[in-house]
Amino acid sequence: MSRTAHGQTVAWGAAGIPLVVALVQTLLALFGYTSNSAGLTPIADPVLSIPVLFEAAVVFKDSSAVVMGLFLLIALAWGAQGGAMLIVEHREAAYGAATLSAVLFFALFFGVYAPLASADIPLIQLGAFYAVPVCAAALQLYAVATYPWNEVVLEETGGDLGRLEAEVANERSAFDAAFDARFEGLETLSNVAPGGVRDVRDGAEEFRDRLDGIDDDIEEIRTMSDGEAARAARAGVESELAGLDSDARIEELADGFQGALASGIRTEYGEFVVRSEYGERYRTVNLPTNHRELSIPGGGDAVHLDHVDEELESLARTGDSFGAVATAVEAVDEHRQRVRAHVREREAPVVEAISTAEDRLDTLDGQLDSMDVPFGDRLGEVLVDGRDPDLDGARDVRTELDRARDSLHECQFDEARSTAESAAEGAATLVTTAELLSTLEASIDARHASVSIPAEIPDGYIEAIVPAIRAGYDGLDATVAAGGDRISFTYDDGTDEAGGSTDAGAAHDTSPDDTADRSGRSDAVESGTGRESVRVASPEEVVDGVLYAFREFEDGADGDDRIAQFRLEDLPDSVATRDVLVNVERFAGRQSDLFESVDLQSPEPPGFIEFTPADGESIERSMSTAHRRFREKYT
């Protein structure tokens, strides 16, 4: 009972006095007792001495059993009201019992005691007697209406909220523990089944949001001043909390994720593919066993990389936690990375050799396109088409590169590297041969007696082209010297090697070691015709000087100028020498893709050297590229 409901209790008790009297009368009448036989004479005699009460007792005694039963029902309803108010504190039950008791007592009282109105009873007594049901009904209704139900309900509800908060906390703790155990390694698996992981996380967050919502509802109930609203809200919270099942939610999320994970495993690990720099797939089946197979943690025997998906799917179906799958996935990914690193490491030198060969072939194409010589058709047959069965042309080199790529994709790395490097060497030979032949027309026009053949050019290339050289120029006889180190020219005016020689292909000269092997010939070359020949050092002898000269020219070249001209007296002494300047002129002059012309007025001061870049090239870029090419060739 509420501590503030004393007045309502008194009102209820006062309303029950006439009901208790009526109940006693009813029980005595029903069981055939009188006041004398029941021993109530000391109480009954004073009461019955009042005329109105005596007459009322006579009327009541003559009432039927039904009426007496109704008086019994009225008393029971009054008692029920008291129990609903003071014991169970149930508002609706108290209202119902009070209403039933008051209405029945009021109606039955006036119905049963109506004959008293015609009896010879003092009016004051009669009025007081008829006021009894009115007062009793009013007191009953007052008691139930003014009872502090809101306070009672709020106290009751407040006591339940702590219990509900504890249940919410327990549910959250149980869910988090079960989720962490079941979905261990979720971050790793996000790479395999990103959509599935997203759904799992969203589902878990939704469940936690529902728990947070219940906590918010509980806090809101605490602030309510309406007890009935608080009770209804509490019932809603209890219903929602009863509908939450962390274990069932975990299983639901796991079932959905298992399907997404299986699909992701089949997609990601169904077949192991490594692609080369050329976009082609490697045949990883040809890799060593320790690369193409691995043992999966939690699985059985070692499996091929193309079948790891079956092991991973089995783990996903049978494991109590997805953590085992995550561990296995990490192991597979690490092994795959090792395999890819192995392939990339073995692939790199092959790709580099292939790229070098292809760049050299592009250089060859540029050289041949820029050459306008009478023997150009024969150059194409020998250097490009490979018409001579004993000599490889660019077409043969490209075929060799195709074989290298095929071997590479078959994971035959050693063979691929050997084939690619061989192709690169063959392409270098073709480029060197084309460089030499590109200088022949200038040498012939200058009536040079001979041109040295670089040691890296096989004799067969020059011998295959010499007949076309003879046929392309009237009055010229060209032959390859017996040692294979020179092309000698004889003109119809009798000029020959005995009269003087020159090496117009000095940039193609070999290193000192190579030149010493060719019939004891000297590294040095000669310039000039007839009896005025002057010896000029080979590029290998003046490498540092030529590099220094290119650096000076590169620094002095203005990108806005079409032509760069340098006075020899303005150059450093180490640059303004015949050996350096002639080698610069010859090397730069052969770079037809960079320079339109290179003119050395005189190899000794006073004089100048003039560079005209090719169409579309700037003088600064042409000079820088020529500098780089010379350094790559001779250092």
TrEMBL record:
It comes from Halobaculum saliterrae. Residues 492-537 are annotated as: Disordered. Residues 515-524 have a biased composition (Basic and acidic residues). Keywords: Membrane, Transmembrane, Transmembrane helix. This is Uncharacterized protein. The chain crosses the membrane at residues 12-33, 67-88, 94-116. It comes from the Archaea.
